[in-house]
Amino acid sequence: GEDVEQSLFLSVREGDSSVINCTYTDSSSTYLYWYKQEPGAGLQLLTYIFSNMDMKQDQRLTVLLNKKDKHLSLRIADTQTGDSAIYFCAESGANNLFFGTGTRLTVIP
Amino acid sequence: GAGVSQTPSNKVTEKGKYVELRCDPISGHTALYWYRQSLGQGPEFLIYFQGTGAADDSGLPNDRFFAVRPEGSVSTLKIQRTERGDSAVYLCASSPDGTGGNTIYFGEGSWLTVV
User: Fold this and answer.
1) pLDDT level of residue B100 (50, 70, 90 thresholds)
2) Which of A75, A87, B73, B75 could form a disulfide with A62 if both were Cys (CB 3.0 to 4.6 A apart)?
């Protein structure tokens, strides 16, 4: 079955770049997503990438996809304290999304 | 409404009781999903509706869990004979038509605690 893996924790200093990594198993996934979850809140879609792309940039966010290695990363430039949250990588299945366990990003002022 | 609305936002129930969780999707969205998120985990798929029918219920953990969407809009997730292991956040999401891309929107979840 599908398996999405992420490291559990990441700490960065305010103003630095953050890079959150994810590996997935289903090479047939059409879309790969990054969601943000703040404490006590639902999931907010940050960005997504179509599987035939290798990079997507959206303001401070850059998504890199290495389809050969099934590796996805999210880079946040100029990380701010408001970026502190849990970030989930997800791959698309036939009718749903498969999520990783999430990476808790802590931004140190 | 503007977004996916879920009620109740919090529910504490005793072991063995019956619970209903409600989801009101974005108006006009034909696809509706239920996920369960346990503490420290990512969301896990439960069931997917396309219109009124359950197109994929492969994620429901056992027959104590059931969901309906009788008019193709509001959905109710029903849990019978609750167990402590059912404690989790139950997330609902909707999508215009169930296809991929940037179109899956999540509610804030219903936090269920079984004591």
Assistant:
1) low
2) A75
